[in-house]
Amino acid sequence: MRILVCVKRVPAPGARINVTADGQTVDAAHLGFTTSPHEECAVEEAVQLTEAHGGEVTVMTLGPAAAEEQLRYAASVGAHHFVLIPIDDVDWDPQRTAAALAEAISAVEETDGAFDLILFGNESADAGGFQVGVRVANHLDRPIVNGIKGIDVVADGDGAADVAGVVAARREIDGGFEVYNVPMPAVLGVKEGINLPRYPTMKGRLASKKAVVDTNERTVEAGGQVRLRLHRPEEQISETIILGTGPEAASAVVDLLEELGVLA
Amino acid sequence: MSLLVICDHDRGALSDASLEALTFGRPLAAAAGLEMAAVVIGEGADAAAAGLGAHGAATVHVASHPLLTDFGPEAWGETVVQLVRSTGATAVLACGTDRGNEVVAQVAARLDQPFVANCRSVDPTGDGSGNWTMTRVQWGGSLLEDTTLTADVHLVTVAHHAVEGVAAEAPAAGTVASFAPELDDVLARTVVADRVVLTRGITLSTAPVVVGGGRGVGSAEAFAPLEELAAELGGVVGCSRAVTNNGWRPHSDQVGQTGTRIAPEIYIASGISGAIQHWVGAMAAKNILAINTDREANMVTRAGHAVIGDLHQVIPAVIEEVRRRRG
After folding, report:
1. Domain B2-190 CATH (choose: 3.40.50.620, 3.30.70.20, 3.30.70.1450, 3.50.50.60)
2. Do domains B2-190 and B209-326 have the same CATH topology?
3. Distance in angstroms (rounded) separating the CA atoms of residues A135 and A118
4. Through-space distance between the first and last CA atoms of chain B, rounded to whole angstroms
5. Alpha helices in A9-131 (DSSP H)
6. Domain ranges of chain A
């Protein structure tokens, strides 16, 4: 299988997220960076699928030059090929991001062959626009289902034109899950919980240093959503009422439960 | 011209999220000078449509087609697109649930229009030049973003739990109109093929009481008293990301930005430090009681009530007291 995973470099949030003076982006001075959690799981899933069914994993990101760090991390946990679509430090809007990704994917597919499966994270941890994967799938005229927490390859198709590959994708809903049988080439939006991502091995770390990152520049028009500024919500300053210390507080706790009517 | 509200339902029973969207939509439509219409899709849509006048919908479109019997993001998105075209709607609103955001994203992709997800407030008079302005949530709610939206069809979702769903002060006509979209058979590729029910009854997102455990619980086995307390209170157990990463609980129990958003009457957060990513999943709880040995933990300082102490001692004492009072 040929699998592509699109990932985003996001700040690893601390206890408090601060904003730059111009309100355009998160002040990352005291933050590390990481791969957005849903997407870290998407990379792991892709690596597991190729371990089971053969094939290779390509990881693509649209981001600043420093996002190479996230591509090398993907290399350290088993991905094979890497594409960076470079932009400045401030996020592109979702329409623009999706158009650039779709163009870059088409360009890669033209030279290296089509991807059977493209994985996105359900939404990015920072901007959380909930749409880039859907837009890319639409650009490429491929099916997409979001919220996926389980993927089984029902028929891998094996690249033969007369055998359609199908993935059974499980989506968690309240109290159970839905199953979608999606024909490949397909796009899925993956959620954390689909697996527990592995940690890089020493061998993986060493190999990742040698990984080749292809740069794929894209010039795309901005979309209709324009950021004015980021700001922190007003703190809900709630004076915490300390009910007590240790097991002696049990009586006060149950008083509170009674008061809220949850003891009935 | 109209604002079209996508109303999700479970075999005819409207979801709370849909009522939130309608409640959010009423003043928005009024400010934008639009009539509010609703669309219900799929099996049971007729039943769901019946009560929507009371929530302010002037027209209720009931979409039916063999491909719409069960949920399918592409078929639902295409249906809304065709309805927008046939009614000339200039705005579409849904609640920012997984499904709401997915369907509106489908609509956005198909219409090639921008889509602003998870808004807290929307001003259709915006910057005075025809653009809308809005405040939306980022980082699951720990950061806000002000944006402008320039579009032919304005596509937005309202952040789940941002408003409480209430009936309209003055009901609207709620005239039901059936709508038969033309859907290509190929869209069957993303229609639900099967459903598996794992738990019946209350779940993490609907429970009136959630007893949460974090790293401080210490092990999978040590969750037993939390289970016991949850059972006493008719609630369920939730956990932090640290717990899931340690393999103590399944991810479906995880409360947080990348897990489940909860909104119980009370969230009892025990042994949870309260990292941002956990807090945003818990902040819609009406009351929070933190049990923690650290008085300075984020969860304690943000909670309305707290007990300073070891959860392994406090929780069994609470269970005992609950049972004692019940005799």
Report:
1. 3.40.50.620
2. yes
3. 13
4. 62
5. 37-53, 68-76, 94-112
6. 2-215
Say yes or no for a CB contact (<8 Å) between A138 and B317: no
β-strand partners of B41: B63
> Which of A134, A140, A166 best probes binding to B when mutated, by most B CB atoms within 10 angstroms?
A134
Q: Domain B209-326: give its CATH code.
A: 3.40.50.1220
Q: Which ipTM score applies to this complex?
A: 0.94
Inter-chain CB proximity A244 and B308 less than 8 Å: yes
CB of A164 within 8 Å of a chain B CB? The answer is no
Please give the structure tokens belonging to residue A202.
């020493």
Residue of chain B with shortest Cα separation from A124: B139
pTM score: 0.93
The pLDDT tens digits of the residues spanning A131-141 come to 999 999 999 99
| pLDDT tens digit sequence for B148-197 | 999 999 999 999 999 999 999 999 999 999 999 999 999 999 999 999 98
Q: What is the CATH number of domain A2-215?
A: 3.40.50.620
Q: How far is B280 from chain A (nearest CA, A)?
A: 12
Domain regions of chain B by residue span: 2-190, 209-326
Looking at every residue in chain B, the average pLDDT score rounds to 95
3-state SS assignment for residue A140: helix
How confident is the model at residue A264, as a pLDDT?
72
Q: Do A193 and B245 touch (CB under 8 A)?
A: no
